[in-house]
Amino acid sequence: MATHENEKSEKGVAHASSIDEAKFQYNDDGDTIIEGSEGVTQRDLDTYRHVADRLPYTAWLVVIVEFAERWTYYGTTNVFNNYIRAPLPPGSTTGAVTAANRAVGVAGALGQGVQKSFAIRTLICFQFNSFWVYITPFVGGIVADTWLGRYKTILLFSVICLAGHIVLVGSATPASLAKPDAALGLLVLSIVIMGLGAGGIKANVSPMIAEQYTGKLRKETLPSGEIVIKSPAVTIQSIYLWFYAAINFGSCGAISASFLARDHGYWSAFIVPTGIFILVPFVLIFGRKHYVVTPPRGSILVETLRVISFALEPRWSLNLIRTIRNCRAPDFWDPAKPSSYEKGKVPAKITWDDEFVGEVARTLSACTVFLFFPFYWLCYSQIDGNLGTMAAAMTLNGTPNDLIQNLNPITIIVFIPIFDYIIYPFLRRKGINFSPIKRIYAGFIVAGLAMLYAAVLQHFLFKMSPCHDDKPSECVDPATKNPLAAPINVWVVSGPYILVGISEIFASITSIEYAFTKAPKRMKSVVMAFSQFQTALSSALNFALVSVNVEPRFAWLFGSFAVTAWVVGTIFFVVFRDLDRREAELNAIGSGDREGFSNESS
C-alpha cells in the first residue's frame, strides 16, 4: 500500500535521527565511503564483483536445528494415512507387517476405514495441521519480539514440540493401539501440541540464522589477485539457500518413516523422529555462548497498532477512493511522528520516536509483498496430492506412485548449490541485478509453467486412458479388477515436480530472505510469521476449492492455476517495481544503534 509514503517517511526518519553532513567520510580520491562499510566507496561497489562472505559456524548450528525440526515433521505426517485407515496387520500389536507378508502387506493401526480415514486425515492431519502450523508462528513471533527474544523462544517451543512427539509415540504403543479411540485422541492432541511448537520455532529460526552473520561491506583480494566486494546482501541470500536445503534434506524423513512403520511398527516410526528432534535443544544449548541474539523490546505490537492508528485517523473519509488516495499520500505517516508537532504539544499517547514510525512503515511495506503468495502456494500444493493421483493412472513398471513426489526436495537439494555457486555468481559477474522482487516474479512464472505442463499432461492422460476422463486413477478391468493404466511412463510426471522445486528457489527462499532484510530487527519474527501465514491462507483457499478439485476437472484446474500464477505474478512485479529500484536503499534503512545485536548468552 504505502510505497511513496514509506520512502518519504523513512528518509525523513533517517535524516532526523542519524544523518548529517559530518557523518559522511571520503577516501583520498574524494569518493564517498558507504556508511557502515569497511572503507568501501560507491565507485568500488559499482566496479567490483560482489561475492558471499564465509558463513559463521553458529549459522550452521541453526541449520541443524531446522533440519531436525523438518525431519520430525515429514517423518511423522507421511505415515498418518495408513496409520489411521488400515487395521493392525494379522498377528501385529505395533502396526508392523510380518516378514513373510511384507511383499504385499500394508502397515496399519487404527483401522478407521477409507471414508472415516479420509475425513480425519484431510480435515485434521492435513488441512487443520497445515493451517495450524502456519497460524502459530504469530504466537512465536509475538513471544520473541515482545518477551523472550528469539533464542529463548526457540528453546521454549522446542520443548513444547518435543512433548508433542512424546505424546505421538505414546499413541502408537501396543497398549494404546489396543484401544483405537484412545490412540486417535492422543494422535489429535499430539498434532495440536506439535503444531504449536513447530510454529513457534518457524517464526524465529529463519531470522535467527541470518542474524548470525554480522559482517560488513568490505573489499578483499582473492588469491587470484581479483578484488571483490564481500557483500552482506549476497551472504544473506546464500544463507537462505542453504537454510532451505536443510528443510528439504529434512523432508527425507518421509522416505524412512514408511519402511520403519512397515518393518518395526508405528512406535518405532515415531520414536526415530523424536530422537532426532532431541538434537534441537542440545544444539541450542551447545552454542548458547556464541549465538548472536536479539533482545526483546517489549509491547512492540501495541505501539505498532497505535502508530498505524495515529496515521490513519486524519485520513478516513466516507469516500473510499479519497481514503485510498489519502493513505498513499507522501505525508501519510506524519501525524504519528513526534517531530510533526510543536515542542511541548506532542500527544501524551505518542511514546515512540520518528525512527520507530519509519520501522512500522517499512514493516507494512514488507508485509504487502507477501499478500500475493497464497496464489503461489496454490500451485505448490498440487505436488502433494493431485499430481500423485495423476501418477497412479500411468504405467508404473513397479514404481510406487507416491515415490515421484520426492523429486521435489531432490530437485531443490541438487539445484541450490548450482544456483549458489554457478548461476547467481554468473549473473553478478555479468552485472545483471537479479533482485528479490525479480526472483519472486520468476518463481511465479516457473510455477505457472509447472501447472501448464501438468494441464497438458492431464489432457493426454484423459485421451490415452482406457477410462478417459472418468477417474483414470481408478480405472480397472471389469473382469479381473486389475488396474488399467494409460500407456504413459510414470516418470513423465516428474516435470511439474522439478519445475515447482526450481520455482521455490526463486520465490519461496527469496520470500524468507525478503522478510529478514526488509523487516526492522525488532519486528523480524512477526514479519516472518506473517510471510508464513500466507501458506495458511492458501490451505483455506484449497479447502474452498474442494468441489472443483476432482479428477475429471484436473486439466482445467491446472490450467487455471497456471494463468493465475502468471497474472498475479505480473501484477506483483508491476506493483512492487518501485521497491525493486530501491532495494539497496531499503536494506540500509532501520539499522540504528537501538536495534543492535548482542552476543550475550540468552
Automatic annotation (TrEMBL):
Entry protein name: Peptide transporter PTR2B
Main location: membrane
Location relative to the cell: Membrane
Keyword rRNA-binding carried by entry: no
A single cellular component GO annotation: membrane
Any single GO BP term: oligopeptide transport
Record's keyword terms, sorted: Membrane, Transmembrane, Transmembrane helix
Transmembrane region(s): 131-148, 155-176, 182-201, 239-260, 266-287, 364-383, 403-427, 439-462, 497-516, 528-548, 554-576
SUPFAM superfamilies: MFS general substrate transporter
Its membrane topology: Multi-pass membrane protein
The keyword Heme belongs to this UniProt entry's keyword annotation: no
InterPro entries according to UniProt: MFS_trans_sf, POT_fam, PTR2_symporter_CS
Pfam families: PTR2
Recorded family membership: Belongs to the major facilitator superfamily. Proton-dependent oligopeptide transporter (POT/PTR) (TC 2.A.17) family.
MF term (GO), any: transmembrane transporter activity
